[in-house]
Design brief:
The protein is mainly alpha-helical. The protein has 4 helices and 2 strands. Strand 1 and strand 2 (about 120-125) form a beta hairpin. It binds protoporphyrin IX containing FE (2 copies). One protoporphyrin IX containing FE binds near residues 22, 23, 156 and 160.
Length: about 180
């Protein structure tokens, strides 16, 4: 039997760094929009934390995309049927699309207001202007993409659990620190 090939250590670190931060960022986003507007400050404070994490996360995501662009994914075990390979590929591509659209729409939405973005307390240069329509459009994109992202992640984790508990084919171990090469 041939051994399952793993992702490299760099790919594994980037996967889990971005994955855990994305899950935290989604949880924070969904929670912060339920914070009441009064007393003033609390909601805005958490929005600023979300924006600061989101911008930092965008840097990790760019790093991950560049790294992925330069490296192929290791081949799946021969036992994985074609439809599952196609589904996994589509799921991964769409996850990457969401990883780009989420920070971009968040940043654009926050740029088309009269308030500057505070990045961990530091005012970022304000190139945008107060444009309620563009802000609303960006917010809609952020919200719709968040919903799609959550569904894709749920599917992704369900597939991982199936490979781990039902198929037991070593696919989940590929994204962990065993026999890493780089
Ligand atoms: C991967 C990065 C990000 C993820 C996963 C994420 C996720 C979310 C989620 C789940 C919500 C609640 C649903 C919604 O109202 O849309 C939300 C809201 C929000 N996010 Fe993000 N976000 C990210 C990046 C950012 C960035 C970079 C900014 C701004 C610099 C930002 C600004 C906002 C704002 C202002 C809201 C409140 C709703 C609105 O006005 O659109 N987000 N985010
Ligand atoms: C508990 C949560 C998670 C588990 C158990 C998990 C597990 C895995 C596994 C086993 C693979 C390798 C699949 C293969 O061999 O083809 C993988 C790949 C991948 N995961 Fe996750 N994952 C999790 C969370 C996430 C999250 C939150 C994201 C989105 C930010 C994500 C994005 C990806 C992407 C894009 C790939 C494809 C890697 C590539 O080939 O470039 N994962 N994941």
């Amino acid at each position: 039997m041939t051994e399952t090939q793993n992702y490299t250590r760099t790919a594994v670190i980037l996967h889990w760094l971005v994955g855990v931060c994305v899950l935290a960022q989604i949880t924070l986003g969904l929670w912060m929009i339920t914070i009441p507007k009064a007393p003033p400050g609390v909601r805005a404070g958490w929005f600023n934390v979300h924006k600061s994490i989101g911008i930092t996360l965008a840097a990790f995501i760019i790093l991950r995309l560049l790294w992925r662009w330069a490296h192929r994914a290791p081949p799946l075990p021969a036992s994985v049927p074609p439809w599952e390979r196609a589904a996994a590929r589509a799921n991964h591509i769409l996850l990457y699309v969401c990883m780009i659209v989420m920070p971009l729409s968040g940043y654009l939405g926050s740029s088309f207001t009269k308030y500057p973005i505070l990045y961990w307390g530091i005012k970022l240069p304000q190139w945008g202007w107060d444009a309620p329509d563009l802000k609303e459009l960006s917010s809609q994109v952020h919200w719709i993409t968040a919903t799609i992202f959550i569904a894709l992640i749920a599917l992704h984790v369900a597939a991982a659990i199936k490979h781990w508990l039902v198929d037991r084919d070593g696919v989940v171990r590929r994204m962990w620190f065993t026999r890493a090469t780089e």
